[in-house]
Amino acid sequence: LWRFGYSARLLKTNHFKTAASNTSFPAAWVLLAQYSGRIPGLFAVEKKPRFVTMPESMEDKAHLELYSPPPGVRGMTRLDREAFRRTVVVPVLKVKKETVNALLKSLKQSVLQRPGLKRVVEDPEDEDGRLVILDPHKIPEFSLGESEQEVLKQLDVHPEVSRYNLELTYENFKSEEILRAVLPEGQDVTSGFSRVGHIAHLNLRDHQLPYRHLIGQVIMDKNPGITCVVNKTNIIDSTYRNFQMEVLAGENNLVTKVKENNIVYELDFSKVYWNPRLSTEHGRIVELLKPGDVLFDVFAGIGPFAIPAAKKKCHVFANDLNPESYTWLLHNCKLNKVDTKIKAFNMDGRDFLLGPVREELSKELPLLKEEQKTSFHIVMNLPALAIEFLDVFRHLLVGEPCSTAALPTVHCYGFSKHEDPAKDIQERAEASLGTSLSGRCSTYLVRNVAPNKEMLCISFQIPADVLYKRPCP
């Protein structure tokens, strides 16, 4: 590789880590295979002369400056928008204003496409003229290629490329570019967040905390509709599933409104649990239900499973231990006009299963006939603890088992850091139930929560020998 003047740059991706851990080939052979095109995606191979440093060209410098704030903002902790002002020299073409549209269409690959920047500005030397700004990265040495010159000739535009001082301000830079310029070099930049109505929710790392108020202000500036930015300050409370948070920027108003799967919810984000990343999973479970089915939602929160299920004309029993969640659940039931279709409870999950759930199943299951197609579903969405509640189903009912088709289906969520998370979740569920689920369950990967931490849902019908305690003869 060195003989041919090549160097390999490792791509730090999970895909590489997996591939690298499963191979016994020497690194040199992997590189050679990549160079020959046999192992795409593991490495990027770039050619460069040995022992030669190429000077940075004028257009590369202009392109770099076009996407980078001034270096003087490095280390800023209190946002000073004026400090982001800079002037960059860019190539322009002088044209008559009546020719502008035709030129933009013909040279669209060469014209500046930077969002937020005008591509056409007035010519200070010609009242009837305009300056069309070109992308400095695509116009080497401020001169046009033959194909571009031919286009200009057809449009009767002079092919000379001029230099123009383009002023950039804070408004012209993206949030990622601003934060990358401010935070110390080499450190992670946080520009992603969860949006909950008008609230942006961040999970900042320790090294980002000195810049937290600046980060919050930038996020609010660059995302219309965001009027409050918060940062989680500790882990989720496993009892009530809420967490302490600090308002970084904007108004201190954490009561908000969200819309998920065409249903509106209102909540106090500081007191109840809400995760916008679970909307697909809420929809997936509700899609399994049919009108007339019965849903027991053990850890219901503010109702993202319960309310759409009631909208689907299912019979719903919804429970949550958190008094605030219970209050907002009742509020959202009324808001969505399903308050008469949902029976709400404010109980511990175990007590809910041993009380209302057992009572309803004891009453309804013996009445089911073979031809009836009512299904019973039990949702247990408390990933940190739900699997530990499965032992409640051991001999929950007394009597002769109902038909196999009528046995309740459980959808239980859990976290796993195991190398085989599906196997891990199944084994833990089997330990709680005291029986094997082999061939009788399915696992679904909900989302990646953190590096090497997955959230999964295991679904199964409760085996009859687990659910029923038969009376002694």
Automatic annotation (TrEMBL):
Family the UniProt entry places it in: Belongs to the class I-like SAM-binding methyltransferase superfamily. TRM5/TYW2 family.
Matching InterPro entries: MeTrfase_TRM5/TYW2, SAM-dependent_MTases_sf, TRM5-TYW2-like_MTfase, TRM5/TYW2-like_N, tRNA_Gua_MeTrfase_euk
Keyword Methyltransferase among record annotations: yes
Gene3D superfamilies the UniProt entry points to: Met-10+ protein-like domains, Vaccinia Virus protein VP39
GO CC annotation terms, alphabetical: mitochondrial matrix
SAM-dependent methyltransferase TRM5/TYW2-type domain mapped to chain residues: 193-464
The organism's place on the tree of life at top rank: Eukaryota
Catalytic activity: guanosine(37) in tRNA + S-adenosyl-L-methionine = N(1)-methylguanosine(37) in tRNA + S-adenosyl-L-homocysteine + H(+)
Keywords: Cytoplasm, Methyltransferase, Mitochondrion, Nucleus, S-adenosyl-L-methionine, Transferase, tRNA processing
The protein's role, per its UniProt record: Involved in mitochondrial tRNA methylation. Specifically methylates the N1 position of guanosine-37 in various tRNAs. Methylation is not dependent on the nature of the nucleoside 5' of the target nucleoside. This is the first step in the biosynthesis of wybutosine (yW), a modified base adjacent to the anticodon of tRNAs and required for accurate decoding.
GO molecular function, one term: tRNA (guanine(37)-N1)-methyltransferase activity
Protein name, as recorded: TRM5 methyltransferase
CDD domains documented for this protein: AdoMet_MTases
GO biological process terms held by the UniProt record: mitochondrial tRNA methylation; tRNA N1-guanine methylation
Keyword Lipoprotein: no
